[in-house]
From TrEMBL:
Residues 727-879 form the N-acetyltransferase domain. The keyword Transcription regulation does not apply. Keywords: ATP-binding, Ligase, Nucleotide-binding, Tricarboxylic acid cycle. InterPro entries: Acyl-CoA_Synth/Transferase, Acyl_CoA_acyltransferase, ATP-grasp, ATP_grasp_subdomain_1, CoA-bd, GNAT_dom, Ligase_CoA_dom, NAD(P)-bd_dom_sf. Residues 490-526 form the ATP-grasp domain. CDD domains: NAT_SF (cd04301). Pfam families: Acetyltransf_1, ATP-grasp_5, CoA_binding_2, Ligase_CoA_2, Succ_CoA_lig. PANTHER family: 3-HYDROXYPROPIONATE--COA LIGASE [ADP-FORMING], ACETATE--COA LIGASE [ADP-FORMING]. This is Acetyltransferase. The keyword ATP-binding applies.
């Protein structure tokens, strides 16, 4: 993750335009007009081979002729000239460039990147619409409009979509802090921009239009950081299911599908919406600071039909109609007319006057069974809709309520002023019940996603039997097989603590008959073949067999059937297992697959032989815990059956989520697994049991996508003695944000200045989250805690995108210094860097920070002078066990 030199893009002091033109209708002419007429306070320097002046500004024939080195350059030359222009800009000292030009591909693209690399110049594009920052008067784009200043940042992969968004927002008075189109994203991508915008105080909400992502882990890390500080709303185009044709399992069929992106956005704390209008509606609702803690909605209306429409929309989105308390109903009955609805939705009838709106809203806001209230108005001749809106506003002004209020004033002319007054008072104002309910569910889903993004599962109680699991995989590899047999699949699952139905292998029909007799009851007979995965489709499964004679007959018949259907298949015998009689159990499907972009995924849904037809399934990204697993279950239709119905009791949800979390553990721990399906997993009140499973391994040498979210590194935990006291050193957790802030507050102003190069005494908003929520890949932070779990010190490492070097930082609480804690933490982070294979670790230390310089010197750092700081470096040429202790 890097924001290096992005300040030159967002806050340039000077801008060069290479490819400026006066030719009417040309891209160079539009760029010149937009740059020169948007109010940028610094110099704009046109570069043109043919023109002496561009719109009355002197034009220069080359980059070398420019009177100064521009911070930012906009390049709109033919594609073949771009690498040379970028090289000239880099040589001149330019730190960022926006490459508008299309067609910079293949060798030209690489040549452009090679030219920018020595000076670390950043490139936005190529093939992009450009960049706009209205507050700074920057319009470095060929867009048809200059947007108004505001608090939203838009990052779009498509220039056309960005142009449409500008047009849409302009008509509705929506303003922007920044608009960026990344085009082909040769250098600057979503991850970089999310990381920058997360700490940009002018940006209050981030909008993304995504077509594809190149680096899943980078995107997830930056997205999770940004989502902790401000709303991030995303539109994802394209709903590919490219992996379905080649899939071995139902889980594998989801690799590359839209469901995986959906899971990624959820886990990153982002809110996914369906289109541009919903994009702006969602960020507007979230941006006013409304928060909900559940999905129960109370509805107040003067029209019964509008209430019914709201309920329909709510249930379609898996929200719940709030159950009002008896006290609330009695108070409403005392205030409302005789024929009011008597329940939720609260219909106070078409002749309701404004004071009744205010009173009814007050009563509903005091009911703890409602998480939010939707107030709706249908225009009538009895009461002006504007007065009803005023009553709502006055009620909210009179007392602070902790439940959000949304509104839907139905109609156009008669209700326009009412909607305006509601919006001005901070009440989201919508035109239809469906839009208002959708906004409420945006709040609900955003809350769930926020809860998901801060979870960093540390693992399950007890450890899997890794030796047993890997011996199963090794045996299949040794046999030259990618498919595990039925017994092998069961052994693998058993090693990870997944409850499986015990079975017995039989090489011949006679052995199968003998095994069935020992089981003393009805049995299932399955063909055992490493070449057959979908056994039932070929008649390789027989259920409910009784007695040796029936088993013997069916085994011979099955052999004939399979041999005829698949003569090339190797038949190793049969699997015999007892029939399971659990009439109230639900058939579930749980699986693991490898997504080409996001790495391992876990799937849950309805199982059985009709799984493809029902298509009731969701995807999650490991690592999972029980809360994340339970959320996945709740998003399926079968979850309603699992809660119990009629004479069917509720299923053991703890057992179900236990299987899911153990499969998550397996997905992380066994990278050799390409696809795994458990179908069916029987689940009822007595627990769960696996009846059948299929497992396929990755081909030897096949490339495996990295995990999008690394698991928490438990192995870094250690206990040490410092100054006679026990201290725990471990990797930082997202939940450590408040403790980090407390450590800074407990430190002296001088120590805070030396660490952060700033005069603040407390961490600014968003900083504790940024410092505590890391991806454990490019970044690592180790904290030292005392017995009260207070943080005494932190050492930190932030690596470069190439994985070669990293910057370190260190801070020890003022009252804990001079005990050896700083040396301990710095040495621990160096050991981590060495184990990771980093070539170089460096840091910037203030000249007057003598203790830090002394500690660094003792650990092998050498000084490199600079104008303002002493840059302390260590070149990592040692083996991990040779790092200074």
């Amino acid at each position: 993750m890097t924001t290096r030199n992005l300040d030159a893009l967002f806050q340039p002091k000077s801008i060069a335009l290479v490819g400026a033109s006066n030719a009417p209708g040309s891209v160079g002419q539009v760029l010149s007009r937009n740059l020169l007429e948007s109010g940028f306070a610094g110099p704009v320097l046109p570069v043109s081979l043919s023109a002496r002046a561009i719109r009355s500004s002197i034009a220069y024939q080359s980059v070398a002729d420019l009177p100064m080195a521009p911070d930012l350059a906009v390049v709109a030359t033919p594609a073949h000239a771009v690498p040379r222009v970028v090289a000239d800009l880099a040589e001149r000292g330019c730190r960022a460039a926006i490459v508008i030009s299309a067609g910079v591909e293949g060798e030209g693209r690489q040549a452009m990147l090679d030219a920018s690399k020595p000076s670390l110049m950043r490139i936005l594009g190529p093939n992009c619409l450009g960049f706009m920052s209205p507050r700074r008067g920057i319009n470095a784009s060929f867009a048809h409009l200059s947007p108004s200043p505001g608090g939203l940042a838009l990052v779009s992969q498509s220039g056309a979509i960005a142009a449409a968004a500008i047009d849409w927002a302009h008509a509705r008075g929506v303003g922007f802090s920044h608009l960026l189109t990344i085009g082909d994203a040769a250098d600057i991508d979503f991850g970089d921009l999310l990381d920058y915008l997360a700490l940009d105080h002018e940006t209050h909400g981030i909008l993304l239009y995504v077509e594809s992502i190149s680096d899943a882990r980078k995107f997830m890390t930056a997205g999770r950081i940004a989502s902790r500080t401000k709303p991030v709303v995303v539109v994802k185009a394209g709903r590919s299911a490219g992996g379905a044709k080649a899939a071995f399992t139902h889980s594998g069929a989801l690799a590359g599908s839209d469901l995986v992106y959906e899971a990624a956005f959820r886990r990153a704390g982002m809110l996914r919406v369906g289109g541009l209008r919903e994009l702006f509606d969602a960020v507007t609702t979230l941006g006013v600071g409304l928060r909900v803690y559940g999905d129960r909605l109370a509805i107040l209306t003067n029209g019964g039909g509008a209430g019914v429409m709201a309920v329909d929309a709510l249930e379609a989105r898996n929200g719940r109609v709030a159950e009002l308390s008896e006290d609330t109903l009695q108070r409403l009955a005392a205030a409302a007319p005789a024929h009011w609805s008597g329940t939720n939705p609260v219909d106070i009838l078409g002749d309701a006057h404004a004071p009744l709106y205010g009173k009814a809203l007050e009563i509903l806001l005091e009911d703890r069974g409602a998480d939010a209230v939707l107030v709706m108005n249908c225009p009538t001749a009895v009461e002006d809709s504007t007065f009803a809106a005023d009553a709502v506003v006055e009620t909210l002004k009179a007392k602070r309520y902790h439940r959000p209020v949304l509104s839907a004033w139905l109609g156009q002319t008669a209700v326009a002023e009412g909607r305006r007054r509601l919006a001005a008072a901070g009440v989201p104002a919508h035109e239809t019940p469906d839009e208002a309910v959708r906004a409420f569910m945006h709040l609900v889903n955003h809350r769930k996603n926020q809860e998901a993004l801060v979870r960093t599962p540390a693992g399950l109680p007890g450890e899997p039997d890794l030796e047993a699991a890997r011996s199963v995989i090794a045996a299949a590899r040794a046999d030259g097989r990618l498919t595990l047999t039925d017994p092998e699949a069961r052994a693998l699952l058993r090693a990870y603590g997944v409850p499986v139905l015990e079975s017995q292998e039989a090489r011949t029909p006679e052995e199968a008959a003998a095994a069935a007799v020992e089981m003393k009851g009805p049995v299932a007979l399955k063909i055992l073949s490493p070449d057959i995965s979908h056994k039932s489709e070929l008649g390789g499964v027989a259920l409910g067999l009784n007695g040796a004679d029936e088993i013997l007959s069916e085994a011979h018949t099955m052999l004939q059937r399979i041999t005829k259907a698949r003569p090339e298949a190797r038949i190793e015998g049969f699997v015999v297992e007892p029939m399971v009689h659990r009439p109230q159990a639900q058939e579930l499907l749980v699986g693991v697959a490898q997504d080409p972009l996001f790495g391992p995924i876990v799937m849950f849904g309805a199982g059985g032989i009709s799984v493809e037809v029902i298509a009731d399934r969701v995807v999650g990204l490991p690592p999972l815990d029980d809360v994340l697993a339970r959320d996945m279950v709740s998003r399926t239709r079968i979850s309603h059956l699992l809660q119990g119905y009629r004479d069917h009791g509720p299923a053991d949800m703890e057992a179900i989520t236990g299987v899911m979390t153990r499969l998550s553990q397996l997905a992380v721990g066994e990278p050799e697994i390409a696809e795994l399906d458990i179908n069916p997993l029987l689940a009822d009140a007595d627990g769960v049991i696996v009846l059948d499973a299929r497992v396929r391994l990755r081909p030897e040498g096949a490339e495996r996508a990295r995990m999008a979210i690394l698991p928490y590194p438990r192995n870094l935990r250690r206990e040490v003695e410092i100054g006679g006291e026990s201290v725990v050193v471990r990797a930082i957790r997202p939940q450590d944000g408040p403790a980090i802030a407390a450590m800074v507050e407990a430190s002296s102003a001088e120590d805070v200045r030396l660490r952060f190069r700033s005069g603040f005494r407390t961490l600014p908003p968003g900083w504790p989250e940024r410092l505590s929520q890391i991806d454990y890949d490019r970044e690592m932070a180790l904290v030292a805690l005392d017995r009260d779990r207070k943080i005494l010190g932190v050492s930190r490492l932030a690596g470069d995108p190439q994985g070669e070097t990293a910057e370190f930082a260190l801070m020890v609480r003022t009252d804990q210094q001079h005990k050896g804690l700083g040396r301990l933490l710095l040495n621990a982070i160096l050991e981590y860097a060495a184990a990771k294979g980093l070539r170089e670790v460096w840091g910037d230390v203030a000249r007057e920070n003598a203790p830090m310089l002394a500690t660094a010197k003792n650990l092998g750092f050498v000084k490199t002078p600079s104008d303002d700081f002493t840059r302390v470096k260590i070149v990592r040429t040692l083996e991990p066990d040779q790092v200074p202790a």
